[in-house]
Amino acid sequence: MIIHLLLFVFQCQLGSCFSRETKINISVSKLKFTKMLLNKLSCVQTNIIFNLCQKKICSTFVRMQSVKAQEMPNKLDNPEIQIDSANEMVTDIYPAPRVVPMVLSRTNTEVLSFDHVPGPKALKYFSNLRQYSFQIGTQLTAGFLTLAFNISNYINLKNPFTNMSALFDEYGPVVRFVSPVGADIVFVNHPEHIQKVFSMEGEYPVRSALDSLDKYRVEKNSILGLYSIKGEDWAHRRSQVCAPLHTTVSQNMQSLKDVCDVLSRKIYTQRNHQDELKTDLYKELHKWTYDCMGLILFAQKFNMLETEIIYNQNDVSWLYNSLEKATDAIIKCESGFHMWKLFSTPAWYSLRKHCDIIDSLIGKHVLQAREACSGDDSFKKVRHILGMESVATAMIVEQPLNVEDVATVLMDMLLIGVNTISSSTSFLLYYLAKHQRAQNILMQEVDALVTSSMTSVQTLKDNTPYLQACIKETLRMVPPMPIVSRILPKNIILDKYNIPKGTLIIMANQDTCRKESNFDDADRFYPERWLKEESRDYHAFASIPFGYGARKCLGQSMAEAMMSLLTVQILKKFKLEYHYGDIKPTKQFISKPNKPLKIRFVDRNN
Q1: Which residues sit opposite 188 in a β-bridge?
Q2: C-alpha span between 450 and 442 (Å, rounded)
Q3: pTM for the full model?
C-alpha cells in the first residue's frame, strides 16, 4: 500500500510538468485504484495525502496565517491549474506556527545588525582576540581613544573640537569602535539619538564609572560613591543627599555671597600694572569654589582664599592640597592605558596617598558634625529651623548614616563639584571679557539688581534672566564634562542600527553643542539665543550640561547659584577685558582652560 501511495504522489508531481490535456488522459484504472486505497484510510490520513498532493502541484502556494484556522486559496498563481471546489478548504492536522509579520515604521524600514555600525576598520582585524582578556580590553580601547584625542589636541591646537567632529563626519552620527580584546564602544552625537538613549536608561541608570576611584574603595572595603554606585543602593543614597543639598544651598546664600566678596577684594588688591591678577586666576577660582563647598557640605569657613601658608600646617590647607593632587592623579589614571590595573604606577600611588588623606580629613569633619548634633531632639529641631546645618549634618540627623558612608559621599561631591564649578566659572568670565557687547548688557542688569533679589536661588534666577542666559550659553560652548555615557539594560535601535544591551554608549555632548545643525552660529557666544522665541525650536537634548533623567547632576542649583553670585559681585566693581589668544577646553575627564586666564579687571567708574 505504501508503494502505491508513493507512486501516486510521484505521478501527481510529474503531472505538473505536462499539459492539461495530458493530465486528463490519466488512466481510469489508476484513479479507481487510488480511490479504493483512499476509502481504506482514515479521515486524518486523507487530509494529509491531499495536502501533500496540493503542495507538490502548487509550487507557488502561499500560506496565509490568521488567528482562525488555516485557509487554502481559491486560485493558484498558475491560471491553468485549478483545484476542485470540493477540496477548496483543507484543514491542517499539524498546523505550522503562526508567523506574525514585523510591522516597520515608514521612516525606519530596515533594522541593521550591530556589525553594520560604521567605524574604524583597523580595530576589527584584532577582534578575535577579545575572548582572552575581555575585561581589560574595554578599558584599553577607551584609553587608546582618550590618548589619541589628547595627542591630536597638541597637533591641532587651533581647533580641538574638530577631532571628535571629524569622527562623525567620516562615519555618520553612530560610530562603533571595535575593541580587539573587550566590549565595543558606540559614539553618538545626534540629539534625537541622545534623547532615545536617556529614555531607555531604566529606573536605575548605569554609566561608566571612575575605575581608579572604584578600585581604591574596593581595596579599602568601603562603599562606592554617588558617581559609581548602581541599582537600588544608588537610588537610596541619592535620595539621602538630594533634599539636604538643595535646602542647604538656599540657607547659605548670604554666606556664599560673603565668599564672593572675599574673592572680589582679593582681585582688587592683587592686580599688577596691567590690571591682571598676579596669581593664577583659575587657581583662585578653584579656591573660591572650595570655600563655598566647605560652607555647604560642612557649614565651616575654610577661608582658603585668605590662606597663603604651607599646605601641611592646618587641616583646611592639607585637604585642599590633597584634593588637587588626587584630581590630577585621577585624570592621569583615567587617561591613556590603564596600566595601574596590572601594577602600581606613580599616578596610582599618588591617588591612594591623597585619597587616604581626604578620607581621613573629611571623616574628621563628619565626626565634628555628629558631635554637634549629639544633643536632644529639641536642639536638633531648632538647629534645623534656623538653618544652622550642612549637608553632613542633615545626612546624620535626618538620614542616620555611619561616618564612613557620609565621608565617601562628601568626598565624591568635593572631587567633582570643586573642579566642574571652577572650570565653568572660568569660561563664563572669559567669554564675558571677550564679548563686550554681552558684558555691557549684563552690567545694566546687574546695576538694576537690588540686594533683596539675592536671598534665594530661585529669586536670583528670576531677577537675572540675561545672566542665566550667559551661564547657559557658556555651558553650551564648554560643557564641564565633554561626554556623557550610559550602559542600557536592553537593546536600542539608533539610526537603523541595533545596538545590543550592555554596550557602552558615549554621547559626545561637546560636539553636539557645536553642531551648526543644532544651533545657528554654533561657535559664537550669543546669550540672546536663549531669550528669543526661536529658542523653543532648539532640540532639548542638543545641550544638556547637567545631564538628564534620574542621574542628572545633583549640584545644578548649587553651581548656578555660585556662578550667579560671583558674576554679580565682580561686574559691580570691574569691567572685564581679554587681549590674548583664544582659550579652549582640554580633552580631559573634566574640561578646564588650556592656557592661563589673563583677564584684566578694570575698575568701573560708578
Answers
A1: 174, 507
A2: 14
A3: 0.75
